[in-house]
Amino acid sequence: MMWFLWKVWENLNEPNKRNIKISLSLDRECLLDDRQVYISSALFILPLNLPNILESSLLRKKRMKVYGFIASPPSRAVEITCKFAKVEYEFKSLNLMKGEHMDKEFLAVNPRHCIPTIVDDDLNLWESRAILQYIVNQYAADSTLYPAEAKARAKVDFWLNWDMGSMYAAIVGAVYPKMGFAPIPDDIEGKEAKLAEQVRFLDGSIPAGNFITGKNITIADISIACGLTMPCLINPTFLDDFENVKAWFGRVAALPEFAEVHKQFQHFAAEMMAAKAEEEKNKPQVKTAF
C-alpha cells in the first residue's frame, strides 16, 4: 500500500507536491496537498479528483485512439460523440484521398482498412454506429445519448439502422459521384430522387422543436446530421424544401460539441474546393478544330 502511494507521489509535478497533506490512519501527517488520502489496513480511499492533478497517473488509462478523416461523416460522428461523452481521445488523421488508410501501421489495427476505427485498450473496433454505441455504453452509460430503457433505446437503434441502410446509402449514391469519389452513374436522377425520398421521410418523422426521438439529442441525431452535411456541401440550399429537417439540423449544429467538429470540416471543405477550382482553372484548354 505504501509502495502504491509512493508511485502516486512520484507522478505528481513539483507544484502539486507542495502543500499536499496526507492523513494516515496512524494519526501521522506528511506533506502532499490540501486533499485528504486515508489509508487503513482494510480500506484505501483516494479522492475522486486526484487524477486531475497527476501528469501521468497510474490510475489513468490510455487515451482512446480514433483513426478517421475530417471529410468522412462517420468519422466526425465518432469525434462528436466522444465530445458529448467527455472522452479523452487522440485523433489520428488518415487522408483517404492520399491512400493513408492502406499504410502498414493502420492495416495492423484494422485489416479492412476502413474508417472510423478506434483502439481503446485491447479493443479494436470499426463500423461507426457500433463505435457510437460502445462509446456511450462505456463512458456515458447514464446519459440520454443512448438511453438504457429498452423502448427508448429501440427507437435510437431503429434510426441508426435506417441511417446506415437508407439515408447514408442514398447520400453515397447521389452525392459522392458528384464529389469525384465515384463515377457518375447513368441513373443519377434516380439516385437524387431516392435521397429526396429519404429526407422527406425524416422530415415527416421529427417532432416539432425536438430531436429525432424526442427532447434529447442521441447518437442517431449525430450520425444522421453528419451524413446530411455532404449534400449540403455541394448544394447549400438542399434542405430548404424540408422545413422540419432544416430546423432540426440547425438545433444539432448549434450544440458546441457538434459545432466544434463541423467547423473543422467546413474549413477543410473550403480548402478542398478552392484547390479543385484552381486545378480546373489551370487545366489546359482543349481546342476543337472545325
UniProtKB/TrEMBL annotation:
Q: Report the residue ranges that make up the GST N-terminal domain in this protein.
A: 62-143
Domain GST C-terminal residue range list: 149-285
Q: Which Gene Ontology MF annotations are present?
A: glutathione transferase activity
Gene Ontology biological process terms in this record: glutathione metabolic process
Q: Which domain of life is it from?
A: Eukaryota
Gene3D superfamilies listed in its UniProt record: 1.20.1050.10, Glutaredoxin (3.40.30.10)
Q: Subunit arrangement?
A: Homodimer.
User: Family assignment?
Assistant: Belongs to the GST superfamily.
Q: What protein does this entry describe?
A: Glutathione transferase
Q: Which organism is it from?
A: Oikopleura dioica (Tunicate)
